[in-house]
Amino acid sequence: MKNSALTKIITVIIISLLVPILSYTIYQVVQTDKNEQLIYSIYDRQLDSILFSVNQHCWDIFSTWSAELASILSTYPDDEERQKIQLQKYVQRNPAVLGAFLHFENQEVNVFKERTVLPESFRSRELFRQKLLMIIDSAKTQLAPILRRAKEGYIKPLAYAWEKSGGQEITLLLFPYFNESQESGRTWLMGIFIDNIEYINDIVARKFMAMNDGELVFAVREKDTGVLHYFTEESNSEKFEKSEDLWIIPNLEIQIKVRGTTLNQISQKRARTNLTFLIVVNTVLLLGVFYVLRNVWHEMTLARMKTDFVANVSHELRTPLALIRMFAETLELGRVPSDEKKRAYYRSIVGESSRLTQLINNILDFSKIESHKKEYKLEPADLSRLVRKTLEMYAFHLEQKGFQVSLDADSDVPEIKIDTEAIKQSLVNLLDNAVKFSTENKNIEVSVQRHDQKIIVSIHDHGIGIPESEHKKIFEKFYRVESSLVHNTKGSGLGLNLVKKIMDIHNGQITVESSPGKGSTFSLIFPINTNGV
Ligand code: ADP
Questions:
Q1: To the nearest 10°, the Cα dihedral for 35, 41, 42, 44?
Q2: Which residue, judged by its Cα, is nearest atom 20 of ligand 1?
Q3: Which residues line ligand 1 at a C-beta cut-off of 6 Å?
Q4: pLDDT tens digits, residue range 63-110?
């Protein structure tokens, strides 16, 4: 009954709680690699999207530049002077732009920034034209598809490394002007000279900074030479996770990484943290379940012991009562022939009724102690005398059952403060157990001895003994060892618990030395210091 209820509870807990949670944990453990990959790909995509938006930004800037140049041409198609003025303004407005030109067949309008040192190729008109015409010539085939796409509103410039000298790097962005009404084959070309370093600092880096909350490290690298042009960190020892060409100037590469760590490390750490957290939660949960089950088990055991107790006590009350009644009725009817027989009947009545009193005292004291209503009267007394008197009082009962009791009492034990009634009751309980749990050898040895600051009262029997594993439990209320002999003897499971409680009141102890088949010794240990007079 009890086991099946517990099995039910355990099954419900396992099915409803443990199985899903443990399966989820196992699933997560197995999936750790996949989770890491997932976290990795999330971060990876984030970095990609940052690089993408930098590129997008550069693209947008270029689109405005090309639109501005286109509007100069469409507003002043034939006025070279005005075109020049507008170009000049345009170049001044944009720090990264060094110069710009509009080219139509063999003529062009060009302007450059007013700077103290302009590159040679800009200062020498001849050199400039030669270089430009060479580039335009080589670009002819590539310009046709650009023009086709320009009709769809999408202009991708051709980028040429124009010059690299004296720490200055110039890129030429070359692209056609598209106009619905223009004749085919007669195309205006437009060009913008970009100061690479200025461009990187003013346009690329600024966009980076706008998106960086300090967690990321950026760099712009020149692909040909590997030179880093811009770097958000002091040292450039860090290895970048992601690189991408700058769409507008493909010779430049933009790079990104997470500060002080790598995507692999981040994803591993994240996955591990998640897993650790899950394992901690599960451990707490398992401990909780274990604790609940233990309590349920405890409560069920107590409930079973209480039921056994009621059955045992009823049995214990019924047997002596039946005997007393039988002897009394026989005596009343005058059917007892001899005086000796009569005396034996009277003795039985006295014996059985004293056993009843003992049992009822135990139960009453137990309930009083449990409800903290029991009061003790501690008065100086001689333990040796008390033990002797108790044995004398109990001698008749013991003799009748065929027991031999010996007493070895020190005569010089000092008086200590005790509740004589309670100690007497304890002794009777221990003697009663010695009698109940003895088989062939019916000798009981009692001793009262002083050891330093202690007085020890021992009761030694040669009965069935108690396994080591039960030594602690026998002092719990209602507890009875589960063996056939114990099962067949009457008892409430309260006796030893009561003795322990009484000894606690006296600041003393009860100990047991016993093993199966070798008898048992129960010792009551009284301290002299605290209880002495
Ligand atoms: P009861 O004797 O009424 O069962 P107790 O609390 O006095 O209850 O004892 C608890 C249990 O301890 C007993 O049921 C028995 O199993 C064990 N026990 C106590 N004293 C002895 C003893 N002297 N020898 C063997 N077993 C004992």
A1: 140
A2: 433
A3: 429, 433-434, 437, 461, 463-466, 474, 479-481, 486, 491-497, 520
A4: 999 999 989 988 888 888 898 999 999 998 898 998 999 888 777 788
